[in-house]
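2024-03-11 09:14:02 INFO receiving multi-entity request
2024-03-11 09:14:02 INFO entity count = two
2024-03-11 09:14:03 INFO echoing inputs for audit
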Amino acid sequence: MNPVLNALRQAAIDWRLVMMGTVLAVIAVVFNVLSGGLFLSAENLYNIAQQTAVVGVVATIVVLVIVARHIDLSVGSVMGFVGVLIATLMYTAGWHWVPAALAGLAVAIAVSLYQGALTAMLGVPSFVVTLGGLMSFRGAAFLVADGKTQPVNDAFFQRLGGGYDGAIGVTPSWLLAGLMVLALVAQTWARRRANSAYELPNNPPWLDALIVLLPVGLLLAFVAAMNSYQIPSKDAPQGIPVPVLIWAGVALVLSFIVHRTRFGRYVFAMGGNPEAAALVGIPVRRVTLMLFALMGVLITIAAIVSIARLNAGTNSLGTSMELYVIAAAVIGGTALAGGSGSISGSVLGALIMQSIDSGMLLLDVSIGMRYVIIGQVLIVAVVFDVIYRRVTGDTV
Amino acid sequence: MSSANTKQSLVELHHIGKAFGGVQAVDDVSLNLYAGEVVALLGHNGAGKSTLMKMLAGAYPIDSGEVIISGQKAHIRTPVDAQHCGIESIYQTLALADNLDAVANLFLGRELLTRWNTLDDRRMDAQARKVFTRLNKNFKNVRTPVRRLSGGQRQVVAISRAIYFNAKILIMDEPTAALGPEETAMVGNLVRQLKAEGVGIFLITHDMPDVFGLSDRLAVMKNGKLVGTYRTSDVTEDEVLGMIIAGKQPEGKAQTHSL
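2024-03-11 09:21:47 INFO inference complete, emitting structure
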């Protein structure tokens, strides 16, 4: 057999991810042509990255929830509830943003554990528990401040949401990019060495080089774009927006959890075969509870970013976000039947959705038409998923 | 084996009972197993043999009766308790997480960790390859999800668990049900090898050649009750079928609870 093909076959490459990346690139190019070069302008890319962050953060954890054969429909409502709560503590009660955020975190974890306990301990389907939560916590979001909008004025806090001062500037952006590149190279280097030490097969050098250079190129291109966007009234370019940084941090931490910890492995085992997971002695209930607790943490992060972005907590915060989040996970290759999905997939899924939405906005497509198309994109993604699994023989 | 009567049992099940709702799935069953012995467990579907073994493996809580392992009373309430007693199981349904690869499945629930408490994938990978090749020299695709493996390879993964973690007591629930002739022979050889190493094996099966080819004793269950326990060499296939189908004890054959 051709050695190149053979190496590609043996390497643990996630071909779905490659395909989704290609789809995203095609979407970008098509919109760029249709919009006369507006889509790939630095300003538009900056806005897309920043707007996707909140959905992206929540999508990373929803992937794991779906992988474990659960669902969370309450994410938007809980985020609204927690967001209004934090804003109220800051504005009406006059708290500093740190204790306010910690109080929000405590409430979010309590809410998630309550829903998680009903699911894990009593075996109530998470669909039902979180459908109830979808309504209840939207109501709670209203009750917190009696439906009044709570402005957020803290200058530092506002930067967490991006916006005018919410980016880290040119030099730190390049520094961070450099560190990431070094980390990627070092990681690949360490993997090759450890594989040799254990006499495990390595990818051919050219393939590993390609696997490292591709993301490095994308990363550098992204940072270059962020660094070339300058708000006209400012005297320096923006650099990487803070929400994007938070999103990237969340995605890295969750990827680490998935690949390097027992907890991550157990979540996938439970999704692949719940019966087997119990038979080999995995503490299924505890893992489920921990999963929901983690959900609470990430919802708090998302809530902070969105109220900082809007400069206010309103009772409608996060309305119908659950749909976008689940759609991002599914477009990113997460199987609703459980057992398969990836964090990087959810990142691409969220970007694909936001790109289509914002591309249509640039082309002046009406709001009704946009909903119609986004909905159909979701269906296309699932149809693709079904066909892909049939072709590759993955029935799960 | 004249010393068998004085030898200590590896496992003693005393008056074990289990009810699901109103159905008595296992009713006052007593059975023992010696080191280096294969006891075949027979009966119709629903006779209670799998339920009995799942209790020993910690998958179901025991309603009544007691389990004694190497002379000591054992409290088996979870699969982890059973693993601590040296009990490993190979289930009919294989109990593999289909979406994970062979290495992850081998170590599932008992992962090797680095000193930072993260998964030590490379050490697991290297160790797993050793065990797998011991059972099947051609087993190379240890990093693909097990759902893409053949029935024989999947069975290798399941059996590897028992070998890697040094099972003293092995429960095999229809280990050859989904296998071709070559793979069945592989399982047979493995049973003989483990037996020679002193592992005690409960073998649940419907396959008469397996029963007469591999087991030292056989126990037949019907409707949750034990029909009888006999030395395999003492009974004929017809008599065994009579026990399974009609619950009829063969005339003039002595039951035995020793080797």
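2024-03-11 09:21:48 INFO post-check: Strands of chain B lie at 11-20, 23-33, 38-42, 64-69, 72-74, 87-90, 169-173, 200-204, 217-222, 225-231.
2024-03-11 09:21:48 INFO post-check: Chain B touches chain A at residues 57-59, 78-80, 83, 89, 91, 93-100, 104, 108-111, 113, 117-119, 122-123, 125-126, 129, 143, 145, 147-148 (CB under 8 Å).
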